Amino acid sequence: MKTLIYSIHAFDRPFLETAAKGKHAIQFTDLSLSEETVSLAEGCEAIALFTGDHASAEVLEQLHKIGVKYVALRSVGYDHVDLEKAKQLGLKVANVPAYSPNAIAEHAVALILAINRKLAKSHDLMESNDFRLDELVGFDLFGKTVGIIGTGKIGAAFARIMHGFGCKLIAYDPEINAELITQTAIRYENLETLCAQSDVIAIHCPLNAETKQMFNKSRFAQVKKGALFVNTARGGIVNTVDLLEALDNGTIAAAGLDVYEFEKPIYFKDLRITPPADALFERLRNHPRVMLTGHQAFLTNEALEGIAETTISNLDQWQESGESENEVN
Questions:
Q1: What is the pLDDT of residues 100-125, one digit of tens each?
Q2: Do 150 and 206 form a contact (C-beta atoms < 8 A)?
Q3: Superfamily assignment of 101-292 in CATH?
Q4: Which residue of the set 24, 54, 107, 295 is catalytic?
Q5: 272 is catalytic
Q6: Active-site residue among 24, 80, 234, 261?
């Protein structure tokens, strides 16, 4: 099947080439999908997209016109695709429903440890020959309450790690994970209770109509003063302006963020020559109690291998039968 893979990077191309094993006529471009780049897929039956690609209704219309039938997503999330429009056009869309949930869960833990023990500040002081410890006081995670928004595969992996730290666990999720309760004694509560009782809040839910801007001014007002806040899910779940206000008024003691509300023009790109013209992003990354990473939580060998294998498997299934088990529309 002739396939164009958009938004290819040096970190994922080798995994995709290995998984393909020459089975498909695959082409690569480092350009992201947009109305301006649709024509690159001329003559292709399928395309493969990453999280920074833009599969709007207008883009899907153009893809349909040039003969594209299948859209393989190299991600769990599919909020960057207009699924309703794809369905109307008869375009099949499949995602990667699972790939090493430990990768993202472990990165969330790394962010918690880093902002709690102030590792970036410690490094800066060390570099400047200032060996005082006055600004580096953190707290024991043992015995603290960790609130987990979303207990799917990633949230469950995160819960098991924090259980190992000796933390008390609270969860918010419409679907209760009975096995996780047995494993970790996690208790399910409403979101208001979770916010009020948690010393650490970690987001592990998808971005959808129910979760968009879930954490806004009113929600932050419910948070226990001095809590740590971590988001390795999707930037759109958090209102960035309101998060900054919560940081400035001391509601949130520190934030560790692998995602940003308006990250698409920024992340995964080399912007050293033309830095991002985003004043809100500048405020966020220069805040003394914020640690940002550039949507790298998934970036492990195991996760990249899993993403590549499932992406190629979706193409295989479409080629063989016209249907994939991982279709989301």
A1: 899 999 999 999 999 999 999 999 99
A2: yes
A3: NAD(P)-binding Rossmann-like Domain (3.40.50.720)
A4: 295
A5: no
A6: 234
